[in-house]
Amino acid sequence: RILIAGGSGFLGTHLSHALMAAGHDVCILSRREGPESARPDRQSRTIAWTPDGSLGPWASACGPVDAVINLAGASIGDG
Questions:
Q1: Which pTM value belongs to this model?
Q2: Residues with pLDDT less than 50, the chain
């Protein structure tokens, strides 16, 4: 199981699809509001989180993970 913070961005989307194609279980953290939701590809889950340094409901929703990839941040395409 791989957790990707920022997995809904440009790089994260491509990376998550490649990881899922290789057979990995992917969990994506997103700053977008809303409850946990199933991804359209149905192979990963997107869980809402607030990157404030605290453990929130997202931590238990993801469960144990084997790896964490942090792609969270401002888009370089925004200026």
A1: 0.73
A2: 34-40, 42
